[in-house]
């Protein structure tokens, strides 16, 4: 089970293993059998190819719902490579085909880490699980798996982990200056998110 340990905060995203020099795990110029159904979602900075499929980068993405049909994942011999949205959102870690911009021609392969878009809920209706499997920080569960300072396994609230969020550059500077150099402690909860069973340390050494 993937968990946070003391001070180790890891955001889970797709793991790309691409050899730009052409040494991909699979390299071929054949037509893919898969058929992609256009999402018909037009997001800022997304373009459409000749088949009506959206494509682009997702560095600043904050919502799974507006992912493009083809997600940029690097280049092969100067050709931009894209992974299908369905492959990107797969909960299974596996090797997926890498397409050119038309979404039809396979130009290589890519290793995609498993992710979750639907976490289970506890009896209080809170989502829980590993943040490593989230598609972005915004899709992390409300209760995140963690290991306390004494080795106790439990969950921390995402809102506690994130801490106070500044709304202006001035607030950000003030918050940064007010934070203790050795980090801070937050409660470690059981699955129900009610009973405190330990302490989790954020930041510091």
From TrEMBL:
Organism: Paenibacillus taichungensis
Top-rank taxon: Bacteria
Official protein name in the record: Uncharacterized protein
């Amino acid at each position: 089970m993937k968990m946070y340990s003391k001070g180790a905060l890891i955001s889970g995203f797709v793991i790309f293993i691409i050899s730009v020099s052409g040494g991909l795990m699979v390299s071929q110029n054949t037509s893919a059998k898969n058929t992609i159904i256009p999402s018909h979602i037009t997001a800022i900075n997304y373009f459409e190819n000749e088949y009506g499929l959206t494509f682009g980068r997702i560095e600043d993405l904050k919502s799974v719902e507006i992912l493009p049909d083809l997600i940029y994942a690097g280049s092969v011999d100067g050709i931009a490579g894209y992974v299908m949205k369905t492959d990107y959102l797969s909960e299974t870690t596996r090797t997926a085909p890498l397409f050119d911009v038309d979404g039809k021609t396979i130009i290589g392969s890519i290793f995609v880490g498993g992710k979750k878009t639907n976490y289970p809920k506890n009896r209080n209706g809170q989502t829980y699980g590993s943040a490593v499997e989230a598609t972005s920080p915004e899709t992390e569960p409300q209760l995140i798996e963690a290991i306390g300072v004494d080795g106790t396994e439990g969950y921390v609230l995402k809102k506690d982990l994130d801490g106070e969020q500044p709304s202006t550059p001035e607030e950000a500077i003030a918050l940064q200056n007010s934070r203790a150099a050795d980090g801070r402690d937050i409660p470690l909860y059981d699955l129900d998110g009610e009973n405190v069973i330990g302490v989790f340390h954020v930041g510091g050494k």
